[in-house]
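PROTEIN ENTRY
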Amino acid sequence: MFLLFGGHCGVGGHIKIANNVKMGAFTATAGNVRKEGTILRGAPAFDASAFGRSWVGVRNLPKHIKDIEELKKEISLIKKQK
């Protein structure tokens, strides 16, 4: 059996973890990990590739918020013109 846990990982409760599971640093899981070879990241833990894609979105949040505010202003101006 081989498990790899990065620093500050958390495992809550009496759970079962499959063989060859890897958990990145600061990952936390409170449920069973049944699939062998799973790579997890985040808290709560989820698939590492999905974590990477979601992190790109988090990094871009300030820009998205600014864009939404600008769109709201434009919509407000268009409504006033009608």
About this structure: Helices lie at 48-59, 61-81. The first helix runs from residue 48 to 59. Residues 3-81 form one domain.
